[in-house]
Amino acid sequence: METLSTYAKIKTIAELEDVEILTSSLDDLLWVLLGVEEQSDATILWFYLPGNASMDDSHIKGLIDYLIDLAEQLGLAMLFESSTEQERNWNEQWEAGIEPFQWGSFWITPPWSDQNPPQNTLPIVIHPKMSFGTGTHETTQLMLSLLETLDLKGAHGVDAGAGTGILSVAAILLGAKSMLGFDVDHWAVNNATETFAANGVDTQCTILQGGFECLEHVDSCDVMMANIHTRVLLDGAPALVEACHSKGSLLLSGLLVSDESVVIQRYQSLGCTLRATSQQNDWLALHFECPTKKHGS
Length: 297
Known about the structure:
- The protein contains 9 helices and 14 strands.
- The chain is of the alpha/beta class.
- It has a 7-stranded mixed beta sheet with strand order 10-9-8-11-12-14-13, with helices on both faces.
């Protein structure tokens, strides 16, 4: 019998920018941050213990104490409430609340919906589990919009921090030939694998578990996508840029408007040229053109 994972659900009432500062500062933590869920009256941070480790009250208390101490060090006024939730309950919650919707030329739908997609749309079936990237968050929508501005016919691409794999599927539907995705967490790898199969692109899309070391497997990259935390975008900038072809497209999101200047400066220092910016509420996406490689790649 399959064992359901248990997740720590941490509720906080704070400014979105403070939440971003906190989550981008997590370090040396036993727990893995799965994602951030914005609700009307609060923000939910989802964590889990990797390696099928058992969870008890002492683990939860340790996590809360860590977050309180970190918030104080950063000068953030944040309070936290904790609870646990089974993976099954999360999925049932999503299934009850998610409806198909159109974004640009895409029709994003859960597998159980019987609604017919509008004419001339590109359907993307998403299994909404614990992975980030169901299409409802601003950063995912910003990335989808940027993808639609590119000529992807025959392109080979990379999806860093793939989550559900929605961006890889979108790229294939827009004409890309192949996509390589990677994510540090097993839940995302499993979810993306299901997504690729559900959309009939599993022969064109590959998903790996890991971080930027996965870029060692990249032989050809015309378009690089990374919808991840600002801190990861800054730390991983050299690896992302190096993996791209000369004049390749680099699409970034997961950053707040307040992070714009530091991220632009970081990538421009590596020879990238800013081609476009896109904003939705407090979130931002950037389109860079990668530099010409001296070795002519």
